[in-house]
Amino acid sequence: MKERMSIVIPCYNEEETVLPCYKSLLGVMNTIRECDIELLFVNDGSRDQTLQKLRELAEKDSRVHYLSLSRNFGKESAMFAGFCNASSDYVAVMDADLQDPPEMLVQMLDILRKGE
User: Is the CB of residue 102 less than 8 Å from the CB of residue 94?
Assistant: First the structure.
């Protein structure tokens, strides 16, 4: 059985970064073929078009899922909501603004598998 990984992506007013984030993560998903990956975006009460962008992505790609919080609770609460809804062997957190390179997920998964 294939391993599964959920990538939790908290979003607050990220309408400009959701699509670039998704595209960057697609490259990583294509690299990690031995693992089924879901992208779990958590809309943390955004007041812009973030939620609409997430809906559009989820309609186009079955690996994209989203939660939408009723108001802005903060990044930690958005992460917690993502953790509670992830359904995978591994869970990673990635900021939507790509301040951490998604390519690091490949290295992190390798380290986990080696038990270092």
Answer: yes
**In the predicted structure, residue 36 carries a pLDDT above the cut 70:** yes
Closest-CA residue to 86 (of 20, 13, 5, 2): 5
HEC profile of 32-50? CCCEEEEEEEEECCCCCCH
pLDDT digits (tens, 9 = 90+) for 77-100: 999 999 999 989 999 999 999 998
Q: C-alpha angle with apex 80: 37 to 16, nearest 5 degrees?
A: 65
Q: Which fold does the domain 3-114 belong to in CATH?
A: Spore Coat Polysaccharide Biosynthesis Protein SpsA; Chain A (3.90.550)
Residue 82, Ramachandran bin (φ over 0: left; ψ between -120 and 50: alpha; else beta): alpha
- Burial (CB < 10 A; 0-12, 13-18, 19+), residue 55, is middle
Contact indicator for 37, 54 with CB cutoff of 8 Å:
no
Domain chopping of the chain, boundaries: 3-114
pTM: 0.94
